[in-house]
Specification:
By secondary structure, this protein is α+β, with helices and mostly antiparallel strands. The protein has helices at 2-29, 76-80, 91-100, 117-126, 131-141, 144-157, 160-171, 190-199, 201-206, and strands at 103-109, 114-115, 176-182, 184-189. It has a four-stranded mixed sheet with strand order 2-1-3-4. A hairpin with a 1-residue loop joins strand 3 (176-182) and strand 4.
């Protein structure tokens, strides 16, 4: 009887340990919110030899900047696109575009719902081997919109618990930034955008063309 009781106790302890390990794994993988996306050709491992090339880039300055209050559709990043060699499908251009933009634009823009320049730039950076460092830099040096794109990228490239710590202050914010979806331009609170990032829905949409089928 003592042996049987001891055996049952061992089985109970083993089961409890198994539940603890499973629960810990779930938390670390972010279950309860959408897990990081599987993206074709993308590694979430940090680059082994980071060059910090992005540190040399600064937000582009529009010398003929317009007042966004008087012109709600104004965004210096779109003016930058007219500069010679400005391309969001190259890492330097993509990073500078997201460092400059003042509008949080989702995956499509315009009446024809074409893939937004913001989504293209985001996709370009996610594919880089040093993607985590790029998005960390956006979070550090970007304006509010740039920081939100940085958080979108970190949602996919770093440990979920660490990401939750980074985004926590943004989830409480009620101040607004310019936002665009399709042809609709308006204002959206930083906290509302942050919630979409935590849930994974916003990064998923920005990365849609690169998701595994």
């Amino acid at each position: 009887m003592k042996i049987a009781a001891t055996h049952r106790a061992v089985l109970a302890a083993t089961a409890a340990l198994g539940v603890f390990v499973w629960a810990t794994a779930c938390i670390n993988k972010g279950y309860g919110a959408e897990a990081p996306l599987a993206v074709k050709g993308v590694t979430t491992k940090p680059a082994t030899q980071a060059t910090n090339w992005h540190r040399k880039l600064e937000p582009w300055v529009d010398n003929n900047a317009r007042d966004p209050v008087l012109d709600p559709g104004y965004d210096p990043a779109y003016v930058w696109l007219s500069e010679p060699g400005a391309r969001v499908d190259q890492r330097e251009g993509a990073f500078q575009f997201l460092l400059t933009t003042t509008t949080f634009t989702y995956e499509v823009e315009g009446a024809c719902a074409t893939v937004s320049y913001h989504a293209r730039a985001f996709q370009t950076l996610v594919k880089q081997p040093d993607a985590k460092e790029l998005f960390s830099d956006l979070l550090e040096r970007g304006n509010d919109v740039g920081k939100l794109y940085g958080l979108c990228g970190l949602r996919e490239t770093e440990d979920f618990l660490e990401f939750r710590k980074r985004i926590a202050p943004f989830r409480e914010r009620r101040d607004v930034v310019a936002s665009q979806f399709g042809c609709m331009v308006g204002k959206e609170s930083v906290g509302s955008i942050a919630e979409g990032i935590v849930a994974g829905s916003t990064p998923r949409k920005l990365l849609h063309p690169y998701r595994e089928k």
